[in-house]
DNA sequence: CAATAATGTGAGCGATCGCTTACATTGTCT
DNA sequence: AGACAATGTAAGCGATCGCTCACATTATTG
C-alpha cells in the first residue's frame, strides 16, 4: 500500500467520490458497465483487467475506481444489471401461470425462460460460471431460487393435477431440467431456437415436463 | 523472454527434459497432478499459480516445468486423467444398455452418470466451467458428445419403443437433462444422493426420461 | 570407481495485475 | 467573474504471475 503524504493539498478536495449526479458521470458509469460486460464475454473474468476495461470504455482507470471500489464491485454491478434485465419476463410468466393448468403453465414458463436467456446468453454463461467463486455475487442464483420457490408453490396449489409427492424435489427436477435445456440450446444449439423451430423445441421441453408430472400413465 | 547465453556449459546437459523413466520422477509427476487438482478446486484456475502448485506438491518450480511445458499443459493432463476416470463406468453402462428396454436402460445410464460424478465432483465442476476457455482442452465435452451419440444410436435402434421422431433432438433433451440433474444434485443437493435417498432420486429422473419418451399417454 | 544421464532446485526476469494518488478539466452556483 | 464541487486523467507502486536457467543432487552404466 503506497504512501499517503498530504503534500500541499488545498483541502481534502471533496467527499471521497461516490455515485453519479451529473449527466456526464452517468455516461461514464454506463460505458464502464458496457465495457465490462463486453470484455468479460471476450476474455473471461480474470483476463478482464480493470485497465483494459477502462480503456475499452474510453475512460481513465482512475475514473473506474471513482465509481467502483474494486474489480469485484464492478462485476457485481454488471451482475445486478443483467439479472434485473432477465428477471422481468420470468416473473411475469410466474405470476400469470399461477392459475393455469399444468401443460399451459409449463409451456408459458419455458417460453419465458428461453426468451430471458436471449437477452445476453454469453454474458449469462460467464457470470454463472466464473463469478460465483469470487464472492457473494449470487444474484443470479437468487433468481434461480425465486423460480424454484414459485414452481414449488405452484405444484402445491395444483397438487391434484400431477403425481409428484415431494413438491420440493419435483420443483428441483423441473427447474433444473428446463434451465439446463434452455441454457444448452442457446449456447450449443442456437439453430433450435430459430424463428421456425423455436416452437418445436418449446413443445419438446413441455412434453418432458408434462410427461414427468402427469397423474397416471 | 530472458537471455540464453550458453556460458561454459560442459555440453547441452542432456535432451531437453521429457517424460518420466525412473520411479522417482513418476512420483514427482503424480504429486504434481494431485496438487494441481487440489489447488484447482480450492482456488480456481487463475488463482492456481504454478509456484503454489509446485510448493504444494513438494517439488521445485523447475521440476514442474521439466514435465509440463506450461500451466495449460499441466491442467490439460489433469483433465485427461479425470476424464479417463469418469468415462469407464459410463461407457460400460452405455454398452450394457444397448439391448435393454427404455426404462431399464434409462435407469442404468442415470445411475452410472451419478456414480461417475461422485469420483471428484468439485474438480469436475472447475474443469467444466473454467478450463474450456483456455484452449482446446475439451476432453470432457468429447465424453459428452460420445454419450450423446450413443443415446442417439439407442433411440434409433429402439425406435418402436418411444415416440420421438427426431432422435438427435430427443438425445439432446435426455442427455442434457440427465447431465444437469446429476450435476446439480451432486453440487447443490448432495443429500439427495445419500445412501438411503439415492434410489429415490434415480427413480425420479428415470420417470422424467421415461415419461418424455413413452409411446402414448 | 569414475563418467554421464536423469532428475531436482530456487533465485529471479519481464510482464501484468489491481489499485492509489497527485493533478487537470468541466460543471454549477452566486 | 470567481470559487469550489464534480468529474476525469495517467503515471506508476507493490504484488504476483508464468516461466527460465545455471546449477546441485541422485541414479545408472561401464
Structure write-up:
Two copies of one chain form a homodimer. The first copy, chain A, has two domains: 23-69, Homeodomain-like (Arc Repressor Mutant, subunit A); 75-213, Orthogonal Bundle (Tetracycline Repressor, domain 2). Helix content of chain A is 67%, strand content 0%. Chain A is built from nine helices and no strands. The longest helix of chain A has 27 residues, at 71-97. Chain A is elongated. The first copy, chain A, binds a DNA duplex (30 and 30 nucleotides) through helix 1 and helix 3.
Q: By CATH's scheme, which homologous superfamily of the largest domain in chain A applies?
A: Tetracycline Repressor, domain 2
Distance between the first and last residues' Cα of chain A: 68 Å
At CATH level 3, the topology of the largest domain in chain A is Tetracycline Repressor, domain 2
- How do the SSEs of chain A run, as a string of H and E? HHHHHHHHH
How much helix is in the residues of chain A?
Answer: 55-70%
- Main beta sheet strand tally, sense and closure of chain A: none
Low-confidence stretches of chain A: 1-16
Count of alpha/pi helices of chain A: 9
Radius of gyration of chain A: 22 Å
CATH hierarchy class name of the largest domain in chain A: Mainly Alpha
Specify the CATH architecture of the largest domain in chain A: Orthogonal Bundle
Shape of chain A: elongated
Oligomeric state: homodimer
Q: What's the number of structural domains of chain A?
A: 2
Strand tally of chain A: 0
Question: What percent of residues of chain A are in strands?
Answer: under 5%
Amino acid at each position: 500500500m503506497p504512501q499517503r503524504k498530504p503534500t500541499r493539498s488545498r483541502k481534502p478536495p471533496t467527499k471521497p467520490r461516490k455515485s453519479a449526479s451529473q449527466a456526464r458521470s452517468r455516461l461514464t458509469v454506463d460505458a464502464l458497465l458496457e465495457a465490462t460486460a463486453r470484455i468479460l464475454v471476450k476474455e473471461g473474468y480474470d483476463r478482464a483487467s480493470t485497465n483494459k476495461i477502462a480503456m475499452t470504455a474510453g475512460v481513465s482507470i482512475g475514473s473506474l475506481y471513482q465509481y467502483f471500489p474494486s474489480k469485484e464491485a464492478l462485476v457485481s454491478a454488471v451482475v445486478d444489471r443483467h439479472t434485473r434485465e432477465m428477471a422481468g419476463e420470468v416473473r411475469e410468466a410466474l405470476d400469470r401461470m399461477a392459475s393455469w393448468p399444468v401443460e399451459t403453465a409449463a409451456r408459458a414458463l419455458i417460453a419465458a425462460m428461453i426468451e430471458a436467456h436471449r437477452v445476453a446468453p454469453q454474458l449469462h454463461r460467464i457470470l454463472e460460471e466464473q463469478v460465483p467463486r469470487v464472492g457473494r455475487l449470487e444474484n443470479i442464483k437468487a433468481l434461480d431460487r425465486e423460480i424454484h420457490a414459485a414452481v414449488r408453490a405452484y405444484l402445491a396449489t395444483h397438487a391434484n393435477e400431477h403425481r409428484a409427492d415431494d413438491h420440493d424435489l419435483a420443483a428441483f427436477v423441473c427447474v433444473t431440467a428446463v434451465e439446463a435445456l434452455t441454457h444448452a440450446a442457446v449456447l450449443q444449439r442456437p439453430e433450435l431456437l430459430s424463428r421456425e423451430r423455436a416452437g418445436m423445441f418449446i413443445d419438446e421441453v413441455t412434453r418432458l415436463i408434462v410427461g414427468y408430472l402427469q397423474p397416471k400413465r
